[in-house]
Amino acid sequence: MGAHITIGNGLAAHTFPLARELGAEALQVFAGNPRGWAMTHGDPNQDKEFRDLCYKHAVPAFVHAPYLVNLGSPTEQTYRSSVDMVAHNLARGAQIGAQGVVVHTGSAVAEGNVDSAMKQVREALLPMLDALGADAPDVLLEPTAGQGRSLCAGVDDLRPYLEHLDHHPKVGVCLDTCHVFAAGAPLDEPGGMTRTLDRLTEIAGPHRLRLVHANDSKDARGSFHDRHERVGRGRIGLDAFAEMFAHPALAGVPVLLETPGGVEADREDIPLLKSLRPGPAR
Ligand SMILES: [Zn+2]
C-alpha cells in the first residue's frame, strides 16, 4: 500500500523518506515533467541511494510515464516522441531499480484508425520488451477511462491489446479503479469489484495484474471521465476497495493512491486503505 509521491529535492533525500513517513510500502514517481516532452536525467548518486533504500526496506518503486505519451497517435511526431519517451522512462526505471513503468494504453485519436494504432503499439513496444532483461522494469499497461478514441478502457479491451503484444512476459497490467469504473465496471455495487477482477484474470491470465491505482471517482459509472477522488469520498466507495483486497488476484500486488489532496490526504488515506486489508492490521 502506497502512493504516487512528488520527487521534490531528490529521490533518496526527499521522496523515499517522505513515502515512509506516510506509511507507504510502495511508491510511484514521475521521471520528469508529466505534462511535457523534456527528458529529465537523474542524479546518479540519488538514483543509487534510492535503489539501495528500496531494496533494503523491500519497497517496490514504479515510474509513471508522462501523460502526453500516445503510442497510437496518427501524428508521426507524437508517435516518435512517445516511443522515445517510453524508452527513456524504461531507462530511468532501470536506473532507480523500479519494478515497472506505467504507460497509458493510448488513443487512436481519429475514427477508423484503431487497426493502424494497434499496429504502432506493437511495433513500438515489442522490440523494447524483448530488450528488457529479467531485472529490468516491466511495462505496465494502464487502461484509460475511455475518453476519445481510447484503445483500451474496459477490462475486455485488454484481450486484443495483450494479443497485439504476444502476451509478452515483460508486459503487465496496471488497473486504475477510477478509469475502469468510468469505463463502465460496476464497482459501486456489491460483488462488482470481484467480478471485474475475475474477468481481468480470465482475460489477462494469472500474474498479469502487477499494479493497482486505487482511486475513487468524482463521476458516475460509465461517465468516461477521468477525475480521481479520494478513496471513500467518490462514487465508488470503500466497500469496493475492501472487496479488492480480498481478491486472490491482489496477492502481492502493490496498490497506490493517485488521489487529490497531496501529502496530507495520503497521510490519512494510506492507513485507511491498509485497514481494509484482510488479516491482522499492520
Ligand atoms: Zn492511474
What does this structure look like?
The chain has helices spanning 11-21, 44-56, 76-96, 114-131, 158-164, 177-182, 192-204, 238-246, 262-274, and strands at residues 2-4, 26-30, 61-64, 100-104, 138-142, 171-176, 209-213, 216-217, 228-229, 255-257. Helices cover 39% and strands 14% of the residues. The N and C termini lie close together (11 Å). The protein has an 8-stranded parallel β-barrel. The chain has a two-stranded antiparallel ribbon with strand order 8-9. With 282 residues, the chain is of the alpha/beta class. It is globular, with a radius of gyration of 18 Å. It contains 9 helices and 10 strands. It has one domain: Alpha-Beta Barrel (TIM Barrel), CATH 3.20.20.150. The chain binds zinc ion.
Q: Helix content range of the residues, please?
A: 25-40%
CATH superfamily: Divalent-metal-dependent TIM barrel enzymes
The succession of helices and strands, N to C, reads EHEHEHEHEHEHHEEEHEH
Total strand count, please?
10
CATH class: Alpha Beta
